Amino acid sequence: MNMYSESATLVTAAAPAGYIDLATQEALRGKRAGVKALWPFIGPAVIASVGYMDPGNFATNIQAGSRYGYRLLWVVLAANLIAMLFQAMSAKLGIVTGRNLAQLCRQHFSSRVVIGMWIASELAAIATDLAEFLGGAIGLSLLFHLSMLASLVLTGVATCAIVSLDKRGFRPLEIVIIALVAVIGLSYLAELVIVPSDWHAVLYHSVMPELPDHDSVLLSVSIVGATIMPHTLYLHSSLTQQRTVACGDAERRKLLGFSNKEVVVALGVAGAINMAMVVMSSNAFHLSAPATADIASAYRTLGPALGAGAAGLFLVSLIASGVSSSAVGTMAGQVIMQGFVGYRIPVWLRRAITMVPAFVAALYFDPVRSMIFSQVVLSFVLPLPLVALVVLSSRRSVMGEFKTTTSTLLAASLFTVLIIALNAVLLIGLL
Fold it and tell me: How far apart are CA 241 and CA 194, in angstroms?
């Protein structure tokens, strides 16, 4: 039995009874069309997309809009398009093999490489959670005038409550995440309504590359570096690996088609929200407060500039972003540990472990500088899952006849080299 069929057997054995519901069956058999056909498969990419709307993205987008207006919108769009490719590859890996990226690394790479990747990935998960956890806590603190300690505790409780929903199946958790993403999106839609935008200029700068000065280069690098997160690549492959059991290659091809559509929709929404952040920041700060560079300053400036309603919406979206992305980070941490070393710890214990650095950073250090430091850690770790994803996707022994095409691999390899180079530039600029 080859690798491909072994993986499929494992998935079938692990799938609970009744895992394929009537809606899924009808979609796979072509009895549903349009949104009705896609809906049963919505979830994995939406959860992964939360990593593209975390508080780290808030910080970089605020700086981009306040300092350069609309001129870096093309960077946000390009970074999102690259992210679509890698997330689609990650989802495909889980659907075709029935294993996630971390499990396949353990199976195909040497033990030393696996241990090194596991340690680095755990550090990345903690660093990711640090920024997300702090972002949510800062939002709660500013909106409700709470102490940072109380805000951190509330963020931790909310995160644990969301993650615990997986005990009731995948759908309740996905619905909560979708709802939080909707809160972020609607908040920024309302922000754009409050202040009119120059949509002709928005469209122009979304497709016309421009780097006004050296600082804009560094900021563009940070936007790209903060867009693709290591944990989303591990998590996405896990979310698709046992969600729907495919019976034969024909159904796998249909699943891949639905997965690719979901990636485009979910990350398209995430990209639109990120671009809306830049547009809002440009409208609010570019002329009146071009030096706005962090979340707290943005909130304090938004009130006088656009009114209390706009400032409140900004914090509501930040809280939704922090809580949802922190929950997703906790899920990714479980996948990383279980995939690389075959060991799983209780969610509450992982949540407690990853909360400690955030508490220390918030209570004893500058939270903003701590968030920047976390992005440096991510820059070091990001190449590992990118290279692993490209290597594994290129192997017929792993993917069978679903081996990624040469053109896709060339594009992924080129983008991997580009992202590694950009992250090197980011690190040089930060050190």
Answer: 42
The pair of three-digit structure tokens given for residue 120, joined into one six-digit string: 């680095």
Instruction: Transcribe 233-269 into DSSP letters.
Output: HHHHHHHHHTTS---SHHHHHHHHHHHHHHHHHHHHH
CA distances for 284 relative to 143, 226, 291, angstroms: 19, 23, 12
**What's residue 372's pLDDT?**
64
Residue 68: both structure tokens together: 């350069």
How do residues 260-295 score in pLDDT, each as one tens digit? Answer: 999 999 999 999 999 999 998 898 888 776 666 667
Neighbours of 212 (CB within 10 A): 12
CA 418, chain centre distance (Å): 19
Which residue type, as a one-letter code, is found at position 135?
G
DSSP track, 164-229: GGGGG-HHHHHHHHHHHHHHHHHHHHHHHHHS---HHHHHHHHHS----SHHHHHHHHHHHHHHS-
SS3 of residue 19 by DSSP: coil
pLDDT of residue 368: 65
Name residues whose C-beta falls within 8 Å of residue 46's C-beta, 6 or more positions apart in sequence.
Answer: 174, 177, 178, 181, 262, 266
Q: Which of 49, 32, 4 is nearest to 254 (CA)?
A: 32
**Please, which pLDDT band fits residue 200 given cuts at 50, 70 and 90?**
very high
Write the CA distances from 395 to 97, 203, 360, integer angstroms.
Answer: 12, 40, 43
Which domain does 154 fall in, by range? 3-430
Place of tokens 């896609």: 38
Q: What's the number of domains the chain is made of?
A: 1
CATH number, domain of 225, equals 1.10.4160.10
User: What's the alpha-carbon Rg for the chain, to the nearest Å?
Assistant: 21
